[in-house]
Design brief:
715 residues, 5-stranded mixed β-sheet, 22 helices, alpha/beta, 10% strand, 8-stranded parallel β-barrel, homodimer, 37% helix, globular
Chain lengths: 715, 715
């Protein structure tokens, strides 16, 4: 696994004796100090004097930070380094020594950090300081990040604080260790062996999260089982919390709304029933006895069959506020998901969350975060931003992204999500004349909210490489960096990741990042171009199935989303259709509603368009659609060729895995293209545009494919 | 993961520069060349001249063997070694050079090997020779085994050949990657990514198996899905076969008997129906086109709900012979399981397989192996040997052991199975005056069978350490060694394993092996002492549930097996009961039938005994039973203490994991003891013997425990 490259081996490396001591299975993620030893040794040489915790400091997270820096320096500094300089870590509150340096830490909050190079008593010194232990810990990782990227430490003076308060991974992990929409093995939580055995992977996980500023984890699936709130499972969660705590992370649990019935023996889970409220209060008290810094509950209620307050004709605010009351005295937070759509509601699915929650604006307790998916449907390759952003000024809204690629090719498609994060977060909500981006809603600036959050549905599993593929590690990494700063630049984040994960050689980094930056548009093009969505095989979501139209609930059918017929394709969400556009601020609504202004990306999301409609370039919609599918396939072929040229810069194991996955991706991109083109040609009755290659098989072939054992299915 | 420690790092190790370059996650199993470098370097120094494939030799397995030896020597020989001696590998058939040495390879078959130290042209030479490439490969691993154990090479002259022909792991791995009775993560077969991506783990797996002589793997669960025989899954299996082939391993598939209906659209799967026979012939031909050396089919028929020939009123021989005919021209084998018991059969479950199969003796085709579990029920902590061994002289019988510890504490109980293998294999079947052990049936000596086999239900999964715990690796190892030689000594095998896996320091090996040797009796004592069996929680088999008596099928209930009442306990299998004893040869039957001769181990397996019956020592059965439970718990406590003393000899990660698991085991042993004693005290109405500690809770507490998410459950 290679969790720890001891310093003596680093010495050997430095003097050219050691080759790669192990296969690169990806376990080390972007924390590969030994691999960078050769290139950074010089800049670190002055600090061979050591890593010191400022005197008096006792915060566990500062001790963790110091230990991390020692590990980094042991791996990266040549033993011959003669420098006597030091790295000093601490907080003014914890250490008189650090206080005596008179550093300006205003505006850094509890989690921000300052890195500064000073001369202290004649010796070169790097200070890693923060107002709280978490800040120092993040500062330590910021320092190693600089070093791993080969950046100079000569004039080091860096200050940074997270713009979002709760930066949380949501694990859709079941108690039987299966993972809903998991493509990287089983759950990393080995419930069977907890609390008796704390797998060292939990520490590795916490460390990786701390390195990118993630400060919380929801351990269990939002489709929650009541058992997760029983004594034995609380004890298991407490054992995980003990491991995560020194790394600045809190544990949260998904709560099943009907638990008072299933566990408490009550007849109801009505949130206004005093016995129900008392049961939850008792449960919260029990959890906090085991986990004093428990983060709180995540709740999926009245959605896709989950119980919730609507079962008792109460509002989502009633439900959330009841749980919030149980947590309030302990400092916990309720993350209440806005992802609802009702079995019986004939309204456009894209509208239902907005319709349900907007009227509740201002009615949520102070410790409730409303957690809204990035788009109005469900983590599609591309969606417009969710219209709730900007529409509920009196309610703090967390944004939920999906890191696991349920709709983006599972583990084997290379799709970098940094561009998707940025696209959503930079979207103008239109609720102000300017400056009202989704990011400004999420980070609380727009309305002055202090409780803020960003959630990522984790792509982490038991696979040795954590995420099922090396490049999916970049999505975990990017999530942490965007949660720290929702205005981050996706290219810069990709460059950081690529340099740390492979090599800082620009001949590798720039072409690799080029691939990453183009990758998500490629997936949009070969799966769901021009604003199409949700055309994946029903249930497992593996591969194309735009023809499915016979399932009981309308919104289970891909045909519900594309609405293709002889004349045209697309979902009319203008006034002549579902009028979902009206859920956006007027300026945005006008843009989306105009066939000339909506743009290619969201064209068929908002409009039903005739096949023969001519787009700006002059080609018909039908021609354009087919050529977009072609373009997607070609883009993957280009990525494959690009990667092949990078062979000299990567170790064999990670290179070959990526190469194999790109082959799979190209084959599946072609499958997507061929099946979709065959289907839409059939529906539209139109011939293929001139010069376009025909699908490899007829439509019946694609329709007959079955994947009963595709991974990630709920059970 | 540390699959490969390059030689340069070994150099650094030798000169004391490198510390352990990585955490010990267990991935390297017993193949830890680098770890042994210091202690063996001297004996290898004369052979620094290199590893040479004898001229002319082209067998892929010989090339694999040479590559393995180079890897070993690169890791273990100091670069300063000045010797010019060589290690030469090859077969007389493939290499004139090797033939010229005039070695005597008679009696080694295709898979045996000769290791001999010679002087060739004045240079010290070790020859690794065999009649076939597999023999050379096994010889190479035999050589590294000697080296890792620190044995001298000075007078090397070792010859060995496997006594059993098919040495096969049975993976109960489902196509959704869950593993029935798997406690080490998911299936190692990542069907979703196959054939496009061949995980390097497949190579590591094949290599580990080759190192212990395992030459086949059944890839999918005996509770088989028809899809495993479709084109896409055959292509996936072929990709695995391509990886396994150079390591001397063949791929087998579990076949679902009703596949002609489910895949072929036939109305029947009647084995005498010409269309059914033609379908299987076509399917076999299709498989062999993709996998020219396909091993054959494993079949579970008419057992636990699986389809089979009895559905058509045909015999098991009819079913097996039909499949055998389809495979015969390709050289494939049918492994037909004797593990059958019928839903509607009121006969003692322990008798049913014998009753069903003995009348079919001599009626199976030449390429059918009848695969019989070690005991008559189902892999219990202790069972007498299966009475079919010795009872079907005209039929080759393979023996099936379970390496995954379904009934032995899952991944967290330390239970070494070498003693169980030896106990069964050394059992005297009684069908001759002497020399008719189960081993002599299995290796074919007794009746002169050439087709022989041993199957191990694999304990391997996607966990980085392969088997869920370090000590479970020993059971995989021991299975390979016993399949090679059914008369192997379990202590010697454990010593080999411990020395290679940790250190050859006797201060570690002897105490560790002492623990292993006592471990299985400990589990018998705290779970099912004195011949009790199958008292585990129904379905998941986790923990005690002797009180379960209300399930639909009698043999699903633990109460069916222990038959405890106010007066006594045990299953009367003598003439006054089910008379299962009569299925054994007369001499053995007499011993089992006698209350004085049966012995403690099988007492309650064969007899219903009054609680107040006095055993040889003078204590009553009730007192003895309770004290056996106590003894089991005490044995685990002693193992924990023993392991603690071994801390200086093991790396931290493997030491701590084992220590944590022993803590879990001790807690669960106590749970077994307390729940069982509470229950049997209640049934018997007897007080606890004097001085015995009362159970920690009352019986109702234990009965209320539920484990809906225990791992390994079928679905």
């Amino acid at each position: 696994m290679g969790r720890y490259g001891g310093w003596r081996c680093a010495v050997a490396l430095a003097i050219g004796l050691c080759g790669p001591a192990q296969a690169e299975d990806g376990h080390d993620l972007w924390l590969r100090y030994s691999a960078h030893a050769g290139s950074v040794s010089a800049s670190l040489a002055p600090f061979a004097g050591g890593v010191t915790v400022a005197s008096g400091e006792r915060d566990a997270r500062v001790l963790t930070a110091a230990s991390e820096l020692r590990r980094a320096l042991d791996a990266m500094v040549a033993a011959g380094g003669t420098g006597t300089g030091e790295i000093v870590l601490g907080t003014p509150a914890g250490s008189p020594q650090l206080r005596s340096l008179g550093l300006d830490l205003h505006g850094l909050g509890e989690e921000g950090y300052l890195l500064r190079r000073l001369v202290v008593q004649g010796r070169p010194t790097i200070v890693v300081a923060g107002n709280g232990g978490a800040g120092v810990l993040y500062g330590a990782f910021a320092l190693t990040r600089r070093i791993e990227q080969g950046l100079s430490l000569d004039r080091l003076d860096e200050r940074s604080a997270p713009k979002v308060k709760l930066r949380v991974l949501d694990h859709w992990d079941n108690l039987d260790r299966s993972v809903e929409r998991g493509y990287a093995g089983q759950s990393i939580w080995d419930w069977q062996k907890l609390p008796g055995y704390k797998d060292p992977r939990y520490t590795d996980y916490a460390r990786a999260n701390a390195s990118i500023g993630i400060n919380g984890a929801v351990l269990n699936n939002v489709n929650a089982k009541p058992e997760s709130l029983t004594g034995p499972y609380i004890a298991k969660a407490a054992a995980v919390a003990d491991v995560l705590r020194p790394w600045g992370m809190k544990v949260y649990l998904s709560a099943r709304f009907s638990a008072p019935i299933e566990l408490g023996g009550l007849k109801t889970a009505d949130p206004l029933d005093p016995a129900v409220r008392a049961w939850w209060q008792g449960k919260a008290d029990e959890i906090y006895r085991a986990i004093p810094d428990f983060g709180g509950f995540l709740v999926k209620a009245n959605s896709e069959g989950q119980p919730g307050p609507r079962d008792y004709h109460r509002s989502h605010a009633d439900g959330a506020n009841m749980l919030a009351a149980a947590l309030a005295s302990h400092g916990g937070t309720v993350m209440w998901r806005a992802f609802v759509y009702a079995e019986t509601n004939p309204e456009d699915r894209a509208k239902q969350a907005h319709s349900e929650f907007k009227p509740l604006d201002g009615r949520f307790a102070d410790n409730v975060l409303l957690q809204v998916k990035n788009g109005p449907i469900d983590f599609q390759p591309r969606e417009p931003f969710h219209s709730l952003f900007g529409a509920m000024p009196r309610t703090p809204l967390a944004i939920e992204f999906q890191l696991t690629k349920e709709y983006l090719g599972f583990a084997t498609h290379l799709v970098y999500l940094g561009t998707l994060f940025a696209e959503t977060l930079r979207s103008d909500t239109g609720v102000r004349a300017h400056g009202a981006s989704v990011a400004s809603v999420v980070d609380g600036k727009l309305e002055g909210h202090r409780l803020t959050g960003m959630a990522g549905v984790a792509n982490i599993g038991s696979d040795c490489n954590w995420t099922g593929s090396v490049f999916d590690q970049a999505n975990w990494y990017a999530f942490g960096r965007f949660a720290w700063d929702p205005e981050a630049d996706p290219r810069a984040v990709a460059e950081e990741w690529a340099a740390m994960t492979f090599t800082d050689d620009a001949r590798f980094v720039q072409p690799a990042v080029d691939m990453m930056m183009r990758s998500r548009q490629a997936a949009v093009d070969y799966m769901t171009p021009l604003g199409l969505a949700h055309l994946m095989g029903t249930g497992h979501h593996y591969g194309p199935a735009p023809w499915v139209a016979d399932l009981a609930r309308p919104e289970w059918n891909p045909a519900y989303y594309h609405r293709a017929d002889r004349n045209g394709i697309g979902f009319d969400r203008t006034r002549s259709g579902s009028n979902a556009v009206a859920q956006y601020a007027p300026r945005v609504a006008r843009r989306f509603a105009g066939l000339d202004t909506v743009g290619d990306d969201y064209l068929l999301w908002f409009h039903h368009v005739p096949w023969d409609y001519r787009l700006k370039g002059g080609a018909t919609l039908w021609e354009t659609l087919v050529r977009r599918y072609d373009r997607g396939v070609a883009a993957v072929a280009a990525m494959r060729a690009q990667w092949e040229r990078l062979r000299p810069f990567a170790d064999a194991e990670r290179f070959e895995q990526t190469a194999a996955f790109l082959r799979i991706q190209e084959g599946e991109a072609r499958w997507w293209r061929d099946a979709s083109v065959a289907y839409f040609a059939n529906v539209s009755g139109r011939p293929l545009p001139a010069g376009v290659t025909a699908p490899a098989h007829d439509l019946a072939y694609y329709q007959a494919l079955r994947f009963p054992y595709a991974p990630g299915q709920a059970h």
